[in-house]
Amino acid sequence: MSAYGFSEVRAVLSIRDYRNFLLSRVFATLAMQMQALVVSWQVYQMTKDPLALGLIGLVEAVVFIAFATWAGHYADRHEKSRIIIAMQGIILVCAAAFLGLTRWSGLSVAWLYAVVAVTGLARSFMWPASFAYSELTVPRAIYSRAASLNSTGWEVASIVGPAIGGFVYAWHGPSAAYGTVFILMAMAAFFTTRMGVKPPAVPSAETPETCDFLTGFRFVFSNPAMLGAISLDMFAVLFGGVYAILPVFADRLGVGAKGLGWLRAAPSIGAILMAAYQAVRPPFERVGRTLFTAVALFGLFTIAFAYSTTFRVSLFFLALCGMVDNVSVVIRASIMQAFTPDGMRGRVSSVNGIFIGSSNEIGAFESGLAAKLMGLVPSVVFGGVMTLTTVAFVAWKAPVLRRLKGLHKPS
Fold first, then answer.
1. What CA–CA distance (Å, rounded) separates 319 from 264?
2. What would the DSSP string read from start to end of 79-118?
3. What's the rounded Cα separation, in Å, for the pair 260 and 254?
4. Which helix (H) or strand (E) holds 301?
5. Between 16-47 and 50-76, two packed helices, what is the crossing angle to 10 degrees?
6. How far apart are CA 403 and CA 398, in angstroms?
7. What is the distance between the alpha carbons of residues 163 and 177, in angstroms, rounded to a whole number?
8. CB neighbours (10 Å) of residue 30?
9. Is the pLDDT of residue 409 over 70?
10. Domains of the chain
11. Is this structure's pTM higher than 0.90?
């Protein structure tokens, strides 16, 4: 089994364009995760207002969602690597802008929000171009391995990036931190320039109905397997996500800021372990059943976390949440790759990005509101129960997804 998995990992990494894409993605994620931490800490130091922190994510999410549909349409009609390098160039300018603003004595948070908005615009174009590039580079037969490697790279960067950001910020302030962000994004751009060209795969003749901005939505909503997979992920995050209220759990457990850091890292650590395991095992044979099982376990582990009263047990269940969430992420990405025509990958990836982005932001709001109205533990239990309800509902409404046995269109 291990030899089989390693042979497929080697096959994926032997693709030169994918190697450069993966390195570019990891360095870009390091830069973006580090920048997110530095901006949030700088804003909090300036305002001492938790609401100001929430506005950072809201500003970026609103801009991302507003442009995502058009960005996917654009990505399907233009060369992918050029879009990625252009957007990384914009993010480089944003890092330089943050660095310059930090040195300005009259700095206000409004200027920081403005740069964050531009970053959101760049991400809205880079998201569909990146996903489309990866899917066009790796053969369908081994794409699940690439999805595992993509997930592993993202999870590692999401842990290391904030850690580097916090260390550099404490060591030499925000200027040095933004300078490091600039260097990391420049390295990402370097590897992007080494990626091969992927011409747009658009049919020569499209009707007005198939070339507008809403084509991606119509395609997803007309495909029960794809819609079911996205819906499972969206509602699991919307109801079952607890990351936004982890500071309250850290206070409840009496572990303080240091313990909060471990609570935030635990899901990513679990996801990395699962991604590494998936990278060396044969692909799941019963894809649909595995996806439903993973999301159901996510709901159960969330409920167990809510009732935990010890720090180590809480870490354990958060890590389990990260593990099963990684399974659903990889399967969903593989389903998207298998069912999406080459000429629509950008638009469909944008729809996926809108679903994921909105669920993260709205889910954070839902978590805080539910905790205030229902209490901390009951609100998380409610989220876990709603996740299980979603699994049952989607299994009922999307039998095609439930019966899916491989990464191919069912007959």
1. 10
2. -HHHHHHHHHHHHHHHHHHHHHHHT-TT--HHHHHHHHHH
3. 10
4. helix 287-307
5. 150
6. 9
7. 11
8. 26
9. no
10. 1-143+155-195 (1.20.1250.20), 210-411 (1.20.1250.20)
11. no
